[in-house]
Amino acid sequence: MELDKKGAEIVGKAIQFWEDKKMISEELAGELRGSYQLRNSNADAIAIYALISAISCGLLAFGALVIDEKWIELLRKQWGISENIVGIGFTMISAVFVFLAKRRQTHSPKARTSNEVYNITIILTVAIAITYWTRSFSDANSNYAIPLLIATIAYGSIAILLRSTLLWTVAIISLAGWWGAQTYYWSGGSFRFLGMNYPLRMTLLGLVIWGFSIVTQRIKPLQFLTEVTYSVGLFLFLLAAWTLSMFGNYDDYTGWKQLKQSYFWYWALGFTIVLIGLIYYAFQKKLDTLRDLCLVFFLLNIYTRYFEYFWDRTNKGIFFALLALSFWFVGRKAEQWRNKVAS
To answer: Is this entry keyworded 4Fe-4S (predicted)?
Structure first.
């Protein structure tokens, strides 16, 4: 059995504790230590970098072939093929890739990284198929949220079928796009829907997606989606809430630029209080993802507030010196707390 560095350290300490307390013999302790080995973290890092490179190259290739050259349109017009035929063709191609990806998973279930790279082709072909299927929504009164809704359902269904966190992430992104476009359509072209502007609507959506991770945790076939739903939902919630702390529930960009940022002080204060509460809760419950993301946005929040309120009023050197001192103090206290808990 292979364990990462942290897991191997925990198991090693447990075995040592049992051996010191005479709960197990030295022979059994030796057998337990030999039952696992340290995973090659360098290989994991290389696999992750390869995945990122493959995704980047795939997107660049897609942009060069489909967007820049528009070769599909050239072939369609030259041969007189209708848009529906192109949609049908790419739907069939997508189905073939889904079948091949499922078969690959059956034969190589442990090659998760390479399997996810394979799913990039599915993402692109499904996107082209939906684009051509929904070309009829091209007039000024059309609801452009419908293609995004179809994409959400398609990517979500394929993600569950292939147990792909990458496809599920794309489905969540499509859902966010659908929510923005659909509420814009429901509001009749207004930037305010049910009294909410875009940042507030996206904050609520992020909160719903973040909370949906509780549902996936309780449904056994969807448990593999819990971590990615939790992380993406939390990130979307924090990102939208950070935007909300700057714009408030204001829906007029021209009017917003004429207002002083102090007008939205209560939104900034609310966001800061939420972050502090989440960070405290994360440290108490030892939730690494929640702690790390909230700390990142807490730093971003501090810099944002500084540029809003103090950029033209304070000495930059003094401000950043005080900021560095405060972070050093927080880091020192966090280290002392961690050492106290470890002991």
So the answer is: no
* Measured CA distances, 188 to 135, 180, 315 (Å): 22, 13, 47
Residue 145 lies in a domain: yes
Q: Which residues of 58-83 are buried (b: 16+ CB within 10 A; e: fewer)?
A: eeeebeeebeeeeebeeebeeeeeeb
Full domain range(s) for residue 270 = 190-312
Shared-domain flag, residues 200 and 296: yes
Contact in structure between 225 and 165 (CB atoms under 8 Å): yes
Q: For residue 52, list its beta bridge partners.
A: none
Contact predicate 126/158, CB 8 Å: yes
Same domain, 208 and 267: yes
Residue 303 counted as domain residue: yes
Give the tens place of pLDDT for each residue, 294-328: 888 888 888 777 776 665 565 666 666 766 776 67
- Let me know whether 117 and 203 are in one domain: no
